[in-house]
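We were asked to recover a plausible sequence for a given structure. The inputs and outputs are reproduced exactly as logged, with field labels preserved.

PROBLEM: sequence recovery
POSITIONS: 318
GIVEN STRUCTURE:
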């Protein structure tokens, strides 16, 4: 019978750091943290520490940053930690069977969707892109597949009409952290159960790439608005007008404006204090918060005050 658990934690981004922070304030013993190797970032290519590494170092938890988990040396090092359980949250490395078999209670994964919906790398973004009304967090017992293991715990989170990937990720980090602590208590009490996933409900959340962020004006206003929310804070939806690269941080489907006649998708239909109104494959999309290249994020009115010549009705965005 366990009272507290010896835990290895594996994760990299802020979402994972929220879960690690929750564990730091429990009775459990964090004996090691796995995170991605430091990588150069920004215009100066300076090496930056992942949010998980920064937090682990703050609490003096040993950090391991292997480039591969396949080597005998790495596997031996982890085995010597004598962990009860290994917890994975957005680590972005596949754990080989040799590591899955090391902890006494196995390895568990905290995943930001209601598995088996949205297995894969980008569950939060894909849920928003698809117009899902609910999502959640699923904790699974890891096996050799990707997000295929049996479900140990699941909690639901409604998706609000104005949710972005940033806001939804914050919500899921909070409920995921609570779900993780509950799951660990179930392990300790011996009341944990595992439920196989329903393979008839599988969908896959492929990794987001920068090319997806360029707005396709032939899509409906509803779908483009979803893209803008899903790609906030990365990679940020954008369009090009008169050679200028413009990121879109916020927009809304405009149900009041109606077009008269035929317009190419991407045509500036009207410009006023409420926004820049663009025709799409179906409906009008109103842009409300934009960011010109190398400038700050600003309201449409702020941008029009200095660059009104970029947004003349009849011009076509690409």
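RECOVERED SEQUENCE:
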């Amino acid at each position: 019978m366990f009272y507290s658990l010896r835990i290895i934690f594996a994760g990299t981004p802020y979402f994972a750091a929220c879960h690690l922070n929750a564990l730091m304030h429990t009775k459990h013993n964090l004996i090691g943290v796995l995170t991605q190797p430091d990588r150069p970032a920004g215009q100066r290519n300076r090496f930056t520490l992942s949010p998980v590494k920064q937090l682990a170092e703050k609490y003096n938890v040993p950090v391991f940053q292997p480039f591969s988990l396949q080597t005998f040396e790495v596997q031996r090092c982890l085995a010597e930690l004598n962990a009860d359980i290994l917890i994975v949250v957005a680590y972005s490395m596949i754990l080989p069977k040799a590591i899955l078999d090391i902890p006494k209670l196995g390895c568990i994964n905290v995943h930001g969707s209601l598995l088996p919906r949205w297995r894969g790398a980008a569950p939060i973004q894909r849920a928003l892109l698809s117009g899902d009304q609910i999502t959640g967090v699923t904790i699974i017992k890891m096996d050799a597949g990707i997000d295929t293991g049996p479900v140990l715990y699941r909690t639901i989170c409604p998706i609000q009409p104005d949710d972005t990937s940033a806001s939804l990720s914050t919500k899921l980090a909070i409920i995921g952290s609570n779900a993780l602590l509950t799951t660990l208590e179930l392990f300790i009490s011996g009341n944990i159960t595992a439920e196989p996933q329903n393979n008839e409900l599988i969908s896959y959340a492929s990794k987001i790439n920068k090319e997806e962020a360029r707005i396709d004006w032939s899509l409906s206003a509803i779908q483009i608005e979803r893209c803008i929310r899903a790609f906030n804070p990365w990679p940020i939806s954008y369009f090009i007008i008169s050679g200028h690269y413009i990121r879109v941080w916020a927009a809304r489907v405009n149900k009041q404006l109606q077009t008269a006649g035929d317009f190419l998708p991407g045509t500036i239909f009207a410009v006023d204090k409420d926004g820049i109104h663009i025709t799409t494959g179906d409906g009008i999309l109103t842009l409300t918060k934009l960011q010109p290249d190398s400038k700050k994020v600003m309201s449409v009115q702020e941008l029009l005050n200095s660059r009104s010549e970029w947004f003349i009705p009849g011009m076509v965005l690409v």
